[in-house]
Amino acid sequence: MSYIELTDVAKTMKDKNVIQELSFRIREGETFGLLGPNGAGKTTLLSMMSANQLPTSGRITVGQYDTAMDQKKIKSIVGIVPQDISLYSSLNAYDNLRFFASLYGMKKRDIQKRMEWLLDLVQLTDRAHEPISQYSGGMKRRINIAVALMHDPHIVYMDEPTVGIDPQSRNKIYELIEELKALGKTIIYTTHYMEEATNLCDRVAILDQGEVVALNETMELLKIVQSGIVELTMTSENASEMAFKTLKQLMCITSCQVNGKKLTLVVSIKVQDAISKIMAALNQQSLPMEDVKIMQPNLETVFLYLTGKTLRD
Ligand SMILES: Nc1ncnc2c1ncn2[C@@H]1O[C@H](COP(=O)(O)OP(=O)(O)OP(=O)(O)O)[C@@H](O)[C@H]1O
């Protein structure tokens, strides 16, 4: 069952096509990853999916609500964990949670119960009386998440919630996401960390320059690069053109891309065996090579293969 539906959605900002026309659906209860480098359009998509911005064209529905017409309803079922910390630093965690709960018109008795449950979830009960200004970056992020969950939303948008924090807090965030999944929440998670997308998400949309370049179950995406990728650097562009013609004939190579002196090869057999065959073929043609790099199949290599770029510069 589709829960969030984007149909032909495009967004232009200051004459720039930030989101190209795209359509996809997110299922109820799934953890859906938006993976892409800086500037790919992840935050803009979340902002439109939470009805904070409208698309320039196309339609977005969240639950049964249309973002162009039912902003209030959408805000009541969505919890947003923004990329930047949005807390009152002179107030403690309780006062921050109370304040944001009041914006949702929650009852006093419900607020107390919910706060206790959430502080336990984010593992900060023992620090909840201290002002936020005394918290580490990771602790602030965890309270930021608790704030987004105060009104018990069905859907949780998390915009790069682990950027720039210590590994301990990062692990605590992963643990709390597992708890939210177990509660059946629908989670949309943006990241440019491919390990996170692989470990946390049921399905992933890979975004680049406002376009979905691939969307599938995480394990299916990994199959795109089969056993792995071999990247060869030849001594000249001429040599790489010649190598391209030679190597694309090899049975063990399912795809071959050439970019200047570099060749990117997707191989279908064990990478080491493929390299032996590649070397033999290049030697036979006396084609000189400068460097060879092996890349394991992961979402980083899928992204590299699909876009010719790395996720992080
Ligand atoms: N208000 C704005 N006016 C003009 N361009 C904008 C505006 N907001 C965002 N953009 C541009 O839209 C593109 C997508 O930005 P967005 O923040 O959605 O990307 P992102 O994938 O979330 O990146 P990051 O990981 O850095 O947050 C970028 O090129 C950005 O410069």
UniProtKB/TrEMBL annotation:
UniProt KW Nucleotide-binding keyword: yes
GO terms for MF: ATP binding; ATP hydrolysis activity
Name of a matching Pfam family: ABC_tran
SUPFAM superfamilies, per the entry: P-loop containing nucleoside triphosphate hydrolases
Highest taxon of the lineage: Bacteria
Key words, A-Z: ATP-binding, Nucleotide-binding
Residue ranges occupied by any ABC transporter domain in the UniProt entry: 4-234
Entry-linked InterPro entries: AAA+_ATPase, ABC_transporter-like_ATP-bd, ABC_transporter-like_CS, P-loop_NTPase
Key word Heme present: no
PANTHER family linked: LINEARMYCIN RESISTANCE ATP-BINDING PROTEIN LNRL
Protein name per Swiss-Prot or TrEMBL: ABC transporter ATP-binding protein
Biological source species: Anaerobacillus alkaliphilus
